[in-house]
Amino acid sequence: MQSARSFLRWLTVAFLAALAWAWAPAAWAAAPMLTSLSPSSAASGGAAFTLTINGMNFTPASTAMWGAAVLTTAYASDSELTATVPASLIAGPGAASITVTTSGGVSSGSPES
Fold first, then answer.
1. Which residue range forms the structural domain that includes residue 91?
2. Are 9 and 60 in the same domain?
3. What is the pLDDT at residue 111?
4. Which of 6, 12, 26, 95 has its CA 20 to 30 A from that of 69?
5. Which neighbouring-strand residues pair with 74?
6. Same domain, residue pair 5 and 37
């Protein structure tokens, strides 16, 4: 009887540990990293365009940001995202920082050209 209780206690602990690991993948997710953008620049006053973001550690829940503006983002793979950049974000001259957010964190910013 004692060994059956010990086994059930062990089984319960093992099950709860496995459940906690399965429900908390963000704790082990790596932060995204950007390696390149295409196009790497856009003319001020230009039309809206699709930005291809290459890097690592992207997930289907990744979100691309243009400065503080959230871009409509589509997941292609763990190394590629596409994002729609509206014309309003390139209406005037300037530079923007592109970042990607996942459950693993936030990328450090636009890759060096």
1. 31-106
2. no
3. 74
4. 26
5. 82
6. no
Q: Map tokens 């290459």 to a residue.
A: 54
Tokens at residue 75, please? Answer: 């997941």
14 and 35 share one domain: no
Distance CA 29, CA 54 (A): 18
Proportion of the chain in helix, strand, coil states, percent, rounded to 5: 25, 35, 40
pLDDT by residue for the chain (113 residues), tens only, comes to: 667 667 666 656 555 555 455 555 555 779 999 999 999 999 999 999 999 999 999 999 999 999 999 999 999 999 999 999 999 999 999 888 999 999 999 998 777 54
Angle at CA of residue 97, ends 92 and 102, nearest 5°? 135
User: What is the strand order of the sheet 69-70 is part of?
Assistant: 69-70, 63-66, 98-102, 105-106
